[in-house]
């Protein structure tokens, strides 16, 4: 589980102007993360616009990241959904062969009860050949995994090793950290409160902004893990304005704008997502230029 302590990055999927997957840009993005101190990579999460990718494109993305990474960093694959049987089938399909763990989002839209969430992840645990990290993001799923439910899951299923907690609620995060077993990973899924969560006992972050500023954000997280709050907060306050900017019009529109300003990818998204507005794009450009 030490492999997933520190800074993980939820990779975007770069697209060419014709909206095909930009393999070369994805390779560049991966190399940039590896060279700048990121600890692990998350492939085909929601930031990757996975809902718009075909099965063949998902295979291409997986294979591109595996090849570009060349075994240097642990890899996590996003596999989740609101059809429990379908998620279990995908977990058993063999796609995880080259991956070290799974990130599995809580069922969205259906709004299951806490018992329904527990039973869903019981099925996930039983189906997965690799360790599983839960993903709680109520702003997207319309349901919240309560700390008591996470604790129950953590204690009942040995291969569920952690949670990406993205409720954006420090009180909930602290309660969660206090309840779960000591070796269970509570990972921030909210860039803005990554540092306070880490200082409170969390194990780092699965981040969006870190792929834009990998060296700085990973250093901040490492300082937080070492309890060096004063030094870590200097970096936090330097990066923090960019976090507000990249999420102002949704994810991944903002981070794709930022990565374009840094020359890593071209700024293309698939509908129903659209590029950041001209005004936001300009503000992101100003921030990058001044950083």
TrEMBL record:
Any idea which UniProt keywords this protein has?
Amino-acid biosynthesis, Cytoplasm, Diaminopimelate biosynthesis, Lyase, Lysine biosynthesis, Schiff base
Q: Name one Pfam family in it.
A: DHDPS
Residues bound to pyruvate are: 47, 206
Q: Which pathway does this chain act in?
A: Amino-acid biosynthesis; L-lysine biosynthesis via DAP pathway; (S)-tetrahydrodipicolinate from L-aspartate: step 3/4
Family to which this protein belongs: Belongs to the DapA family.
What is the top-level taxon of the source organism?
A: Bacteria
Please state what the protein is called. Answer: 4-hydroxy-tetrahydrodipicolinate synthase
Task: Please indicate which residues carry the site annotation Part of a proton relay during catalysis.
Answer: 46, 109
Q: What does this protein do?
A: Catalyzes the condensation of (S)-aspartate-beta-semialdehyde [(S)-ASA] and pyruvate to 4-hydroxy-tetrahydrodipicolinate (HTPA).
The species this protein was found in:
Salegentibacter chungangensis
For molecular function, the Gene Ontology terms on record are: 4-hydroxy-tetrahydrodipicolinate synthase activity
